[in-house]
Design brief:
- A six-stranded mixed β-sheet has the order 3-4-5-2-1-6.
- It contains four helices and six strands.
- By secondary structure, it is of the alpha+beta class.
- The radius of gyration is 14 Å and the shape is globular.
- Helix content is about 35%, strand content about 25%.
- Helix 1 crosses helix 2.
- It has one domain: Beta Polymerase, domain 2, CATH 3.30.460.10.
């Protein structure tokens, strides 16, 4: 059974934001999101603290990953996205951006991920090992 991050952890705290971002990464992994990474951009970006970056093998999988993230965070009584961009027609689902305020989730298809290469762009920022994070799963 999946449990939510500690109810003592307020979403507005850095630890709370990180716990929900880890949950989003795990949800992406549940739908076979590829090469999922968490990038800490909080010190250099005033609008968010973390990026979750993942990809799917095709547009259908990209949509399934996005749906799973929303579903899992809802089940865990987590934050809902403030906005979701790129969810239009199948032709537009090469990069879907989910804005949760404290963290952003970028779900790419493989080609778009290689083109935009956020990991290279933000390569000087630390990453968080979400697989070994002690947040409940």
């Amino acid at each position: 059974m999946k449990t939510s991050p500690s109810s003592q952890e307020n979403y507005d705290t850095s630890a709370g934001i990180q716990r929900w971002a880890v949950q989003a990464a795990r949800a992406a992994d549940d739908k076979l999101g590829r090469d999922t990474v968490l990038i800490d951009v909080g010190d250099v970006m005033g609008v968010t603290d973390l990026f979750v970056v993942t990809s799917g093998g095709n547009r259908r999988q990209v949509r399934a990953i996005v749906d799973e993230i929303e579903e899992q965070l809802t089940i865990l009584d987590g934050p809902q996205p403030r906005a979701v961009e790129g969810r239009g027609t199948d032709d537009e689902q090469t990069w879907i951006l989910m804005d949760f305020g404290g963290f952003l989730v970028h779900v790419f298809d493989e080609q778009a991920r290689a083109f935009y290469d956020l990991e290279r762009l933000w390569g000087d920022r630390p990453t968080i090992d979400w697989r070994s994070d002690t947040s409940p799963s």
